[in-house]
Design goal:
alpha+beta, 4-stranded mixed β-sheet, about 40% helix, about 20% strand, globular
């Protein structure tokens, strides 16, 4: 039985680290049969104020779990534990 998680990736336009994070999160969640949502922090003033220097940011169930570089092995552990 898989655990349900709310997985969100906070990104910005023109962010090269965001492209790599998107690829990693997409690959891991796809393999696990999960989905994630992507939010552009430039369209949300509260997220922009809080995370403008940390993007990309990975949130799992509303908690910051990683930023800048998303490690695929760590992400898989977080999602399967």
């Amino acid at each position: 039985m898989s655990t349900l998680h709310e997985i969100q990736l906070l990104v910005r336009q023109g962010c090269h680290l965001c492209e790599a994070a998107r690829s990693t999160v997409s690959e891991v969640t796809g393999r696990l049969g999960m989905q994630f949502t992507e939010l552009d922090i430039d369209s949300n003033p509260q997220l922009l104020e809080r995370h403008h220097e940390e993007v990309p940011v990975l949130l799992i169930n509303g908690e910051v779990r990683d930023f800048w570089t998303i490690d695929p092995a760590r992400l898989e552990r977080l999602l399967t534990s």
